[in-house]
Amino acid sequence: MNRSIAKGWWLLACLILLAGAAPSLRAQQPASAGARSWTASDVIFQKNAADFRVSPNGHWAVWVSSAMNRETDKRASNLFLSNLQNGQEIQLTRGDDVAVSPRWSPDGKLIAFLFTRKPADAKPGAEEARRQIWLLNANGGEPWPLTHLSRNVDMFEWSDAHSIVYSAEEDPALWEQETHARKDDTRAIENAERTPPVRLFRVRVPDGDVTRLTTNSDWIRDFDVSPDGHWAVTVNQQELAYAWDQKTLPKAFLVDLSNGKEKQIFSEGRIAPYYVKFADDGSGIYAVAPYSTSPRFLTATIELVYFYNMANGSVTKVDLHWENALGRTFQVIKGGFIALLADGVRFRPARYVREGGTWRQEFLTGEHDRNIFGFELGPDDRTLVYEYTTASAPPQWFRATLDGASIGKPLQITNLNPSFKDKVISKTEIIHWKGALDETVDGVLYYPHNYQPGHRYPLLLMIHGGPTGYDVDGWEQSWAYPMQLYTERGAFALKVNYHGSGNYGLKWAESICCGKYYTLEVPDIEKGVDSLIAKRLGDPNQVATMGWSNGAILSIALAIENPDRYKVLSEGAGDVEWISDWANVDFGESFDAYYFGANPIQNPQLYVEKSPFFRISRLKAPTIIFQ
Questions:
Q1: DSSP letter, residue 294
Q2: How many CB atoms lie within 10 A of CB 205?
Q3: Under DSSP, is residue 511 helix (H, G, I), strand (E, B) or coil?
Q4: The whole model's pTM is what?
Q5: How confident is the model over 451-489, as pLDDT tens digits?
Q6: Phi first, then psi: what are they for 514, rounded to 5°?
């Protein structure tokens, strides 16, 4: 089935289920007769903005706008340019193709980006478009392709104003060419000998001449180029089945781009970087890597920062002075880096200044500092663009000035989804209660549009996946969790950051490992429902639950443990039988053996006891399943 049509059917089915399958959960009228109602189209066709990059002169930002196309039924993304002085917006690309990862040339004259579009001179009947590097004059005009590879380009970085380094699979070998000629589309999941390595290449601008830079036989998943263009740092995957068993960790290498010689770095201890970046002066390399106390798995983790000193080869763990560690968005700047730190339902923006072998922390402060969800600092170290949103405020991007740790003079530079202003948006509240082990649990509560104090309303749980996912005080109106479609119909919606959720530190994330899966999350959620019923907000006779992945897993568990409470279930991609999960899911061993404490070969009875399938007869609620 077409993906967006499937999403539309999912929304329709869930709404019918909420309104009609259980008589006690019938829909109610929107809160305001004058306001426009929310529709499935509002969810599917909303616009998103991401990947902002500030120009070298600090006057402009290029960014990616993405949305579903109503005519083609495909998701397209295009490049936009925003004037950072007055917010003027200029569209740079058009059409139904996918443009991502814009990067300014060092001199600011060109914008390179990845574009999945067939060139104008492509032969009729040519194969589907490949993701290639395209160029665009910063002053305007039509973009043109720089590379013409038989493979997709994975990622790229400018090394100087006249050359770009990129990663891509090596060209097809004879065996692969012959297989393709036979129209044999068989694909081996684990076949390292036949899987092309991902290597580094350099392409000259503007002539497009390509030079191979590395001859590695593994798969480069991330890289960066030093400020002088002489070095690269790479993160190389060592086994194709790493997600399943996590046996062989990725490795990081320092590569001399003049001769391709490489040296492994960050090899001390158990550091498995997934993101690497040179310091602004080339004196060292920052790496972001997951950390867990588990001796075998990196399944429930926090994100730590390490620094490799180019002068002496030493590695230092950067003290973030923050127990919950890194949250999201890490950017190297002059003299250090800025980051969003993990802080429960929000993030804490901070600047780190390198002082010898230590880093001094400064929290960023400003009008929107507690609800910044993404940012980009320009090369001048002062021009900041950032995303601001709350659970009741759709996201917009702002330009501001960063003076030390102070964010000042914010100017909104996007006007995303202006039609949302004509609609009622739920009041939201961050709530807390005592969950399992008598520990505090956080939740995001969405109020019904027609809420009146003193009245009870249906209560719908909307449980996140992961389990190391987490819910934040930020806008959520997605095909998986269409919040306003439910609250408009007169229901409370509750999101719960149960034990095992991310963004709360390592102890919380690891709390459900090693056999405790289900035992803490279910009481966390149940006690959240109890608290809302005790406050006379939720109606005890009108409770439903839904979720995707781990959210569906927990919804099934809730309805089996307490079958008389939950009247309706909506389950997306949720497990009921864990032996099949272990054998078939691409992360089966690293997930199941970690959270259950053993795999089914070691302890088959444990998997029977953990699998809701063997107690499914207890389920009473009407249930819709998406798989």
A1: -
A2: 18
A3: coil
A4: 0.92
A5: 999 999 999 999 999 999 999 999 999 999 999 999 999
A6: 60, 40
